[in-house]
Amino acid sequence: MTKVIIVSDIHGNLEAFNAVLNDCRNYDEFLFLGDAVDYGPNPAEVIDLLKSLGARSVMGNHDKAVAYKVDCRCSEELHDLSVYTRENISNKLLTKSDLSFLRKMRVKSSFYIDNLKVYMVHASPKNPLYGYIWPWLDDEKIEEKMKETTVYGSKSIDADMILLGHTHYQFKKELPKMKNLLVNPGSVGQPRDGDRRAGYAILIPDEARVIFRRVKYNVENVLKEYKRLDLERKYLERLRSILLNGKI
After folding, report:
1. pLDDT above 80: residue 3
2. Do 246 and 192 form a contact (C-beta atoms < 8 A)?
C-alpha cells in the first residue's frame, strides 16, 4: 500500500521538521507545498533536507520573496516580522545554490499517485502564491477560489484531491458541487491554529484517505537557535510567542 507524506510551511524550523521526519517513517513519496524559508532560524538546513528527500515541491510566497527579492504579500499583522526575518536570517544564511533550488520550484503541479489524481499548490488554484482558503469560509467562497484563472476565464480543477497550505490551518473539506477533496496538512514550523505541535498529513492513495498528524518538538531548541542569530528583542519575543502558543 502506497504511503505519501504531505508537509507545508516549514519556515526554517529544522527542529520541527526533524520531529515530523522521525514520526513518519517508511513512506513512498514526499510532497512539499511551499514556504521552506522565513521566520525560522535554519532555512539552509531545511532546504538541504528537502533536497535529500527528493521532495516533489511547489513554491510558496516566502520562497518566491527570498528567491527573487520581492515582497511576500503576507498578512498585515505579520508583514514586518516577515521582512525582518527575511533580511536578517534568510538573506544572510542562504547560498546561491539554495536560491537556485527555490527558483526551480514550480508554482503548481498535477500528477497521479497510483490511480489518484493530485493537484498541489501553495495557496489556492485561483491565486497560487497569495490566495487564502480558510477552513471557516462557506462552500461557495471556497469553490470560487478553487478554480484556475485562464485567458478564457476560469476552470475547475481536474483532480481527485487538491493539496494546499499557506493558512497554517490543518483541515480537509469535501465540496458538494465539486468532485475534489481539499486538504491542508497545516504547518510544520509555524502552526497558527492554536496547537503548537508540528502538523502534517499522510495520504493513502488507494483509499483516497488522509490522516492528520501533530507532533511535539522542542521549541526551546529553536529559541536557542534564534539567540545565536542575535535578533532584536521585540522580534524575538513575537517569534517566541507564536511558537509557544501555536497562534498569532
Report:
1. yes
2. yes
Crossing angle, helix 219-228 and helix 233-245, to 10 degrees? 170
Q: Which three cell numbers stand for residue 244?
A: 509557544
| Bridge partners, 203 (sequence order) | 4, 210
Q: Which amino acid would we find at residue 167?
A: T
* Residue range 4-245, CATH number: 3.60.21.10
- In the chain, the amino acid numbered 78 is L
CA distances to 54, 167, 184 from 171, in Å: 25, 10, 5
Is the model's pLDDT at 151 over the cut of 70? Answer: no
Find out whether 74 and 161 touch, Cβ atoms under 8 Å: no
Work out the average pLDDT over 28-52: 98
